[in-house]
Amino acid sequence: MVSVSPFLDAMNNMSQIKKVETVLPIARMTVNMTPLVTGDHVALQTAITSPKSFDRDLCKVLLARSEFVGEHATEKKINFNEFTDSISNIDKLSLIWGLYKASYDNLSDEREIICKNENCKEKIKVPISMDDLIHEDTFTVWDKTDDNDEFISFNKYRYVITIERDDYIYEFNSRIPSIMDNNRMLGMLSTDALQHNLDTIGSVFTKPQHMTNLVDAVRLSSKSKKIDTVETTNLDEMLLSFQNYLPDQVSTSFFKKYGEHFDMYTPKFYYNATCPVCNNKFKHTIDLETEFFLTALYGDRGSI
Ligand SMILES: [Zn+2]
To answer: pTM score, two decimals?
Structure first.
């Protein structure tokens, strides 16, 4: 290949030198991440116009800085739609971890955490490196099979959660959302609503929003045939019904059953802390997706 600019070539090569290997447990892939470049940084530092567009920008940066290795390495780079459709939102967390590590090494130089001992609750400031967050139990590789014991990819896999309450039977077609599914759900949130969720419940989605993201169909039927069986696959209908009509007891059972079946696959990024005052040892969990949104909303990494 004829080089147009030796200077640009050299700069390009420099930007690729530091590679951080990260594991995508659901996609069962290994990806090398290269550091954020100044242009990416500018794109992500811009105030969030909407959570959906911020997430899209973040995913574009993640894709641009990803290098798929092993059998998934292809000549042709995977395009944005393939990427968001074929990679789970859970795996996005591993990509964010790799991007942070390649770019900064540390999650925070001085993170304030609170001792979990109820009688102590001391505020401690600790440096947390990205490597500190990885432990033997951090990753569980996706291993679900279909009825014929054949391996089935996450985007084809559905798990029906059935909950009976009095005469009624609720059936939820549950799944692991892809990056695209999650982005669609973020489209239902305004920046104000996101900020409100983070400030009040400390997570991106409210309970009904989160639940809607985890299912793609719901059916309601009656044991005594009091009502005709009804079902929907419509996102707005599911969200509205979960928000306004679904008994709290049913959603609580849903999350319990969903967690028992799927939680093992969510990477556990946590810091092993020891309180200098009471010597209590505890795990401080880091939610990397929330972390990214907080950074974008409030600036200053490490001050959160
Ligand atoms: Zn303590």
So the answer is: 0.87
